[in-house]
Amino acid sequence: MNLTTQKRLAADILKVGLNRVWIDPENTEEVSRAITREGVKQLIDNGIIKAKPKKGISSYRSKKIAQQKKKGRRKGHGSIKGAKGARTPKKKAWMTTIRALRKDLKDMRDNRDINKTTYRKLYKMAKGGAFRSKSYMKTYARDHDLLR
Hints:
Oligomer: single chain
Mean pLDDT: 95
Helix content: 55-70%
CATH class of the domain at 90-143: Mainly Alpha
Order of helices and strands: HEHHEHHHH
Low-confidence stretches: none
Strand order of the largest sheet: 1-2
Number of strands: 2
CATH topology of the domain at 90-143: Non-ribosomal Peptide Synthetase Peptidyl Carrier Protein, Chain A
CATH architecture of the domain at 90-143: Orthogonal Bundle
Strand content: under 5%
Shape: rod-shaped
């Protein structure tokens, strides 16, 4: 039984595509008799012809991945995209390092571990990028007898 005309009319009335029109398989005889828009509208009112719901995109997979990332998974070398300084920009990394160094220098000066001259010297060296971490700076001060 050819119901293409009825399907086309129903799609137009329901304002959906042809693939979303559902015709009750038990009432195909009745549907084939409906040849006008009014007849198809009546079938829609009776529930013999319906519009299927929209499919949409499932968020299951994305939620699962987000949950795994929250646990710390999927963060290996193969998952890293972008340049070397993309995740933490060079400036931000520098800021955290220099702030830690300057705080440590200030503490050393306040605790009288170093004098003002040594403080200035180490401060300038830190600014120039001579130390990569607090431990390197302390090792340098120890090796060069700058501590009191």
